[in-house]
Amino acid sequence: MLKMIKNISLMVMVALGGISFANASGDGGYEVKRHDWPHAGPFGKFDKGALQRGLQVYTEVCSGCHSLDYVAFRELVALGYSTDEVKAFAATYEFANGFDDEGEEKYRKGLPQDYFPAPFASEEEARDSNNGALPPDFSLLGKSREHLSMFTPWNSVYGEDYIVGILTTYHEEAPHGVELAEGMNFNETFPGNQIAMAPPLFDDAVEYADGTVATTQQMAQDVATFMYWAAEPKMEERKKMGLKVIIFMSLLTIMLYFVNKSVWKNVKKGDDLV
Length: 274
Ligand code: HEC
Known about the structure:
Blueprint: H1 2-20, H2 48-60, H3 83-90, E1 94-99, E2 105-109, H4 123-128, H5 138-144, H6 159-168, E3 170-171, E4 185-187, E5 194-195, H7 216-231, H8 235-263
Antiparallel strand pairs: 1-2, 3-4, 4-5
The protein binds heme C.
The site of heme C (HEC) has 21 residues, from α6.
């Protein structure tokens, strides 16, 4: 028996050891750098400043190509905006609204219940403008390339780190011996290293409303935070609920322990129960 346990634990150790030699790579073959995210961990909360700056990066830079189909303006109150601010933000957008008597298209201002409009009318149009590649929708992109490893957590790649990786690991020139296809860019993080998206960020690409210095790294982290929120807007509620469930279950366990004790209090060992 002891020998069997020894053998099994040896096998498990070898298996884990084998995996741990691999880098935490986003499949691009390079290591994806880990960041400390304030929203990580069981008590993590979103950094509202980062979310607001991330929204600014999205609207001023990324929204030219990437849609955000599943987020409505009214949800932006979660970023720390008042309902009036959300109304004003929505009103900066215009939506087609039927035709007037002369057959001209009419427009109306955006309302809080509207969703972010897509930059292209169709997938075809999006591909035509992007060298054949489709800029994926942002709503779930924050988590789509995440792969978490339960047994070897150091090999996990988190969605936000992957996005920062994509935005900050372009090479101006492909490494020696790598042939880039027409219109492609070399990126350490993107699977296969050839990405159709040209580097979208450069220092001071935006002028932050809160005065934060807009380095490429800063904007990358902010927009990654925003994208992670878009992919999981209910994260904080989920964590709070999880905590409540754990507290409730602990109290229930303690209570049941004493109930059990008191039920069996008068029964002695060896008593005939039937
Ligand atoms: C000029 C158009 C354009 C802009 C602006 C742009 N992107 Fe992209 N993006 C693309 C295209 C096209 C792809 C698909 C690339 C491919 O498949 O090779 C892409 C892919 C990506 C990916 C990788 C998705 C994956 O499949 O892993 C990320 C992450 C991303 N973009 C983030 C951003 C962020 C963040 C911004 C704003 C800072 C941004 N993009 C701005 C066109 C753009």
